[in-house]
Specification:
This protein is mostly helical. The chain is built from four helices and no strands.
């Protein structure tokens, strides 16, 4: 069997056929798109100061976390589905924290 066909089948069963994973994945992508648009339009200008202790902006941190959690959820789906549910739910939690941070930056300009 072709390795790409096997990977597609696993991705399909993990993220498309599982209804809860599909809802979590779509809502994560929509929420992160809104966060990215807010960051790109309002907060990426040089006159807005956004604290970044490690040199990584919150939107970049969000992208790394989402990719890591998606990979772990994909690889652990056959063994334990609840781990995938937890990881995809944590993506939404991190999205909401970064959204609150962006609202704070918007309401408290320096």
């Amino acid at each position: 069997m072709n390795i790409f066909a096997t990977a597609y089948t696993k991705i399909k069963s993990t993220f498309i056929e599982d209804k809860f994973n599909k809802i979590l994945l779509i809502s994560t992508f929509l929420f992160s798109l809104i966060i990215w648009l807010i960051w790109r339009i309002y907060l990426s200008s040089p006159h807005v100061y956004a604290y970044n202790g490690f040199g990584v902006y919150p939107v970049q941190y969000l992208a790394v976390i989402i990719v890591l959690n998606l990979f772990i959820a994909y690889s652990s789906y056959e063994d334990d589905r609840e781990i995938g549910y937890l990881l995809l739910s944590s993506n939404l939690f991190v999205c909401s924290l970064i959204f609150i941070l962006e609202i704070f930056y918007l309401t408290h300009p320096i």
